[in-house]
Structure formats: structure tokens, C-alpha cells
Amino acid sequence: MATLQYPNFPKANVLVLGSKAVQALLPSTLISQADALLEAHRLEDVTDLAEQQRKRLQSMLNVDRHDLDELRYVNQRLGFQCFQETLFEDAGNRLYEGELDPRVLISYYPELRGELFGEDQTVDVMAGVAEHMPPEDSVDDIIVANLVRNYSPHLAPNTREAPPTVELRNILNMAARDMLESYLRKWRRKLAVEATTPQSQAVRMVVDTVLAKLHVNTGKLPELYNLIDQPNAIVLSELETELVKSRHINALCKLYSQRSDDTKLLETWSRLVEGEWIDPDVQDPLSRIFDLLVERKDRSLIKYWMPWLVKRDSERALKLLMTTMSSKRKAEDDRLLLQEIQEANPEAGAQLLEHLVIHRRSTDPALHTQLAVTYVEQLLSCLADESTSKLWRAKAASYASGRSDTPFISYFASTTPDSEHKRTRLKTVLFLQGSTLYEPEAIRTRLSPHAKLLKLELAILEGKLGNHRSALSILVHDMNDSTSAEAYCTLGGEVVPAKTAQAIGERAGLQPWAALVIPLAAPGKPVKPGAGPMKRTKTVDDDVKKDLVMILLEVYMSGGEATADRTAQLLNSQAMNLDVVDVISMIPPEWPLRILSTFVTRSLRRTLHAHHEGQIVKAISQGQNLAVAEQSWEIIREQGAIVEEPLEDEEEDAIGEKLGLDLGERVHGEPASFNEKVALHAADFQPDDEGDGGVVDINVSPEENGLLASSPDSDVESVT
Q1: CA quadruple 584, 585, 591, 593: dihedral positive or negative?
Q2: pLDDT digits (tens, 9 = 90+) for 485-535
Q3: N or C: which end of the chain has fewer CB within 10 A?
């Protein structure tokens, strides 16, 4: 709707005063002249009149606003008159000279107007201009009315269907659009140099949007891209449909990019990737999606698009996801994301699962179990390959037929040709050994049908389940891997030592998997908290070691004389963890004595050494106790300590009784006792010439007399 703006009245210079009225002599104004000429349809004269007035005003230094308004009025009246008579080029020039609001002219183009403004919005228009505006709703209606007025009923069947008028109608519509395009270009240049106000910004939005629509409809792509590349106020919601319909998707992407509408930009590129939309100007839209996500680093956006991306390029999608994942993600979020990726692309899901567990060190047991199952399935798929299964069977037979100090896993890693199947098995072994969070029972059930080829994996699982005898039996009898069996006892139930795992990891490029295997702590060195994966250590209880060694010894002995040499080697290397009495009772009677001779000799020597060492330590302790007692005696007396003493008549008997017991007199039915403070009492009752008490040397003798006191000058006797 247009708001009427009434012009100022002309000014009178001559007034006539009468008895009943005042009359004014009004000059002939520009507006009155123009209206009269327009009524007479003298358009050229009105044009000349407007040009004369324009030149006159340009020559003036100070121009009255009223004069400018009059000139604007004339131009707008003339412009709409030309517009109604389909003189579109002249109409556009006159309306621009009259500074008509572009929205008024655009209102006659409903197909271009869209939803840019509604009926409730108003624009200021002069009253005389509003009264003479074309009453039609659209420029097409104006053209049709003009054709009817000029050619009806001379053309059959009517002006709407007659070929000449149809062609003329199309030509006039094109001329009307060309006029509008030129008109909007001029206004756009004008608005670019004016100060921005809310009103001018509203006009700018309408001008830019309609001008872009005109470029799209006429296929003027260079002009369209030029408009988009410059600062613009295009209402994107009005232009989207036009661009999609005309397949100018590249222009639409540019507009989305300018407005940082990443969601719609990604959606547009995805439709191009899927082939729903086609635009040759958009090169490699999939790469553009990855580039934008890498640039934005918006985790929510990446998470939303990740299931779609893994279907198109799983490698790049996972790389993007892994480089942008937060270190503070919750385990629940990881599981949900993993489920979405697995549903979209199972292979990509397996890679993400591996990344979460191996590289990000997730402590979620569910993820560890999933990865263990995944590795096992991959391992079984390797066995489905006949050449691979034959190779692995040959490696196991070759190792079991000989005798080597190298663990089987090291032998397999060093002698098997590099392949994806080899890498899969090494990853599986390292993960099964290093992880403590998966469910070994379920994995063992899955591997049991393939026990002949996957003995090492089953031994690891038996160890995880605490079935040490079964694990050691597999290593010793099935695999002939005594080195791993003995390492199993030392490490408290681990088949693959950390050093071996690290060496395999460096050779095969599997360091993250090798880092899962925790090394054993050096004796006497505490574990440092917060250490890196390869710097973590663990300890094994001595009792556990002894129990495992005893189980291994029983496993060796169950092999008969074929494992006699291994048994002897174990006895000699683990003598510290074995009890000679238990071992002798386990040895079969038919075994030669040479198997036990070294072990028994070392055990007896070690036992005797420990006994002598204990005697020495005890004697040293006695001397230290006496020295401390002597030093503290005078201090206690000086402090006024009260020492209770027995009566004189009972003193001698009490001391004698106490000395007798302290010196080791045997009491029937009771074990002999020894008081280490006997020297202190002896010094009180048997002082020497210098007043110092003598130190009592104790000789431990197997004779019936028990403990005997020797003279201070004698040496301590040794038990032979």
C-alpha cells in the first residue's frame, strides 16, 4: 500500500482584496503545466518541460526543496504514464529521475517480489502520482490491457491467443524486465554511496534480491557472480528456490559461505555428492566438505556428518574424527558415536574402535571386549585363507620340532613374511596379552574350535582366566615353548614379556599395541605414578611365583624323560623358589640322580649359608644389645629411676635360677630359651678387676647340653 504525500500549494504574489473575498493571482506552476500536457497525452512536451526544469535547477546555487519536489512529481507522473503505455525504457528513465522508491515499481512484478514485502507495508508516494498509478496488479496485466486496447477485435480469435500478439506480449515482457534490471542497477549504485539507514537498508535488500533473481532468470551468470562477490544484501531465502531450480548451485554455495551458514552449505555439497543436484562449476564437493569441517573444527558438526562421510571416504573421515576428538569425552559418547559409525560402515567402525582403545587408551570394558571380538574375527578370516593357514601350521610345526631359547611369538614375527595376515595376528596377540578389560571367557569360546592353529592365543586366554596349569601345558607340550613357559612363571601369568612385545612392536610398527604389555618392575624400585604407557611397571608376589614354578615343574614331569633336561634346567634356575623336600618327593624314582644333583647341592649349600648367616646376625645383635644396656644403665640411675630388687636371701637363688634358664638349661617338656640380656646380670654379680662386665659368647651345639657359655677369648664354634 502507498501512503499519500501531498505536494505544497503554489505561492501567489498578487492578491486582490474585495468586499466579500480575497482573490489571488496564481502563476502557472510546473505541476499544473505537466498535468495539462499529460491529460492531452503530449508526452514529448512533458519530457521537454521536465528537462528544462532540471537544467534550470542545475544552474542554481541554492535550490528550493519545493522545486525539487515538483520536478520529482513531474518525472514520476510521466514515468507511470509511459509505464502504462508499455514505453518501458522511457518509463524507467523518468521514474529514476523522479526518485521513485524501487519497491513501488517492483510491486508490479509479483513473480519477482516474492515475500520481500507485504500488503501491510507502506511507501511514501505523492498524492497526484498515486492517483494516476496503473490500477493493474502486474506488468503483464498492463501489457495485456494495452494489447486489447490497440488490437482487439482486429485479431482472431483474441489478443491472448493470436500468434502476433503472443509474440508481442513476450517481447514487451522482456522489455519490462530489461527496464527493471537497468532501473535496479542505477538504484544499487546510488545506494552504495549513500549513508546506511534502516530505510535504505530495507531498500537495498529488495534491490539486490530482485536484481539477483533477474540475473538468474535471464541466465546472466557473470553478472550474478559479480553481484554476489560484491557486498550485497540479498535475502537468501528468496533466492534459494530460484538458484536450485536453475541449477546454479555454485552461486548458492557462495551465498551460504558469505553468511557462514555451514549447515546449509554442507547440505548442498552433500546433495551434489549424491547426485541429487548437478552443477559442473562445483568441483569435488566431497573434498570441500572435509576442508570446511577441518577449518571449522566444530565437534558437533563433525559428529553429525561423520556417519555420512564414512560411507563416502572412510579413511579421510576417520582421520578428521581422530584429530578433532576431545580428550575429555565420556565413555557413553564414544559408544554412541561408535554405534553410528558401525551402522554406516562396519570397516570404519572397526578402525574407530581400534583408535579409541589402542591410541586413546579408553578404559571402557565394553569397548575392549568389542575390539577383542573384532580382532578374533579378523584372525579367523585370515585362517579361512588356505595359504595362510598352511603357513602358520608349518611355522608351529617347525618351532615345535626343534629346541630354541627364542619364544614362539618372536620366532613367528621374525621368520614369517610381512603381510596383513601376519600383522593381524601380532596385533591380536599383543592386545590379548596387554589388555585386562575384555572378557577372556567369551574370546576363548570363540577360538576353541581353532585350537590347533591358535595355541599361543589360547595359552594367553587360559592365563587370563587363571587356568595356569592349562596355559603351561599348552606352552610346554603343545608348542614346545619352554622359554615362554618359564617367563610365564616369572611374570605371574603372562605369556609375552614386555621386552619381547616392545621388540615386535618396533619391528612390525605396532608400538601402540606393544605399549599395552606392562613390564615387570625392577626389584626394589617403586612404581612411579603417572608414568607413560611404556614406563608403567607391575610387581608379582613371590608366593605366586613359587606356585607357578611348582605347577610348571609338575607339567615338565608329566612329560616323562623327554622333558627331563628341561626339568633339570628349571630346577637349577628356580632353586630359590623351590623347596627341596617338595621337589624330591615329586621326582619319579626311575629318573637318574644327575637331574637332581646340582639342585640338591645348591639347595643344601644355600640352606647352610642362611643358617650361618643367621648365627652371625644374632651374635652381632646380642653385642649391640649389651652395649646399649651398658650405656643406658648410668643414665637411668642418674635420672632417679627406681629399680626393684629381690630380697637378699632370695637374691642368690633367683639369679641362679634365671641364669640357668637364660643359659639354655632344658626344662622337661619345654623348649630351651635364651635371654639376650644375661650379660647385664652377670656383670652385676661378677665384676672383673676393672669393673666392666664380660661379654658371654654363645656356642650353638647339637649336643644334649643345649646352649653353652664359652669364655670371652674363645671363638664361636661353627656347626658342621
Answers
A1: positive
A2: 989 988 999 999 999 999 999 999 999 999 999 876 554 444 443 333 444
A3: C
Q: Which residues contact 189 (CB under 8 A, 6 or more apart)?
A: none
CA 54/CA 56 separation, integer angstroms: 5
* 337 or 3, higher pLDDT: 337
Which residue type does 91 have?
A: A
Scanning 123-197, the segments in alpha helix (DSSP H) are 127-131, 139-151, 163-193
86 contacts 74 by C-beta, under 8 angstroms: no
C-alpha cell at 248: 546454479
pLDDT tens figures, 191-247 = 999 888 888 999 999 999 999 999 999 989 999 999 999 999 999 999 999 999 999
Q: Which residue has the cell 601350521?
A: 393
Quick check: bond before 110 cis, omega within 30?
no
**Grid coordinates 541466465 are at which residue?**
219
Q: Quick one: cell of 274?
A: 549424491
pTM of the model: 0.67
Cell of 393: 601350521
Q: For residues 54 and 1, what is the distance between their CA atoms, to the nearest angstrom?
A: 30
> Phi/psi at 507 (nearest 5 deg)?
-75, -40
CA 32 from centroid of its chain's CA atoms = 78
As a whole number of angstroms, the distance between CA 6 and CA 637 comes to 128
Q: What is the pLDDT of residue 6?
A: 52
- Residue keyed to cell 644327575: 594
Q: Is 443 in contact with 461 (CB distance < 8 Å)?
A: yes
Q: Which residue intervals of 230-284 are DSSP H helices?
A: 236-246, 249-258, 262-274
Query: Position 441: which residue type?
Result: E
Distance CA 242, CA 235 (A): 12
Between the two ends of the chain, the Cα-to-Cα distance in Å is 127
Query: Got the DSSP string for 566-580?
Result: HHHHHHHHTGGG--H
Angle between helical axes of 285-296 and 314-324 (0-180°, round to 10): 10
Distance CA 316, CA 273 (A): 15
> How does pLDDT run across 394-438, given as a tens digit for each residue?
999 999 988 888 999 999 999 999 999 999 999 999 999 999 999
Cα–Cα distance for residue pair 335/369, rounded to 1 Å:
12
Q: Are 203 and 102 in contact (CB under 8 A)?
A: yes
Residues 6+ apart with CB under 8 A from 620: none
3-state secondary structure 587-625: CCCCCCCHHHHHHHHHHHHHHHHHHHHHHHHHHHHHHHH
Contacts for 236-241: CB closer than 8 Å, 24+ residues apart: 236/261, 237/115, 238/114, 238/115, 238/116, 238/209, 238/213, 239/209, 239/212, 239/213
Per-residue cell: 458 = 589360547
CB atoms within 10 A of CB 101: 17
* H or E element at residue 681: helix 678-685
Q: Report whether 258 contacts 228 (CB < 8 A).
A: yes
Counted residue by residue, the chain has a size of: 720
CA 386 from chain centre, in angstroms, equals 39
CA–CA separation, 535 vs 53, rounded Å? 94
Phi and psi at residue 3, to the nearest 5°: -90, 125
| 389 pLDDT higher than 70 | yes
673-705: b or e for each residue (b if 16 or more CB lie within 10 Å)?
A: eeebebbeebbeeeeeeeeebeebbbbbeeeee
Residue 612 gets which letter from DSSP?
A: H
Using DSSP's 3-state secondary structure scheme, residue 392 falls into: helix
- Of 434-443, 620-629, 633-642, 672-681, the poorest mean pLDDT is in 672-681
CA–centroid distance for 35 within its chain: 76
Single out the residue of 195, 189, 244 nearest to residue 211, CA to CA: 189
Give the helix/strand (H/E) hosting 125: strand 123-126
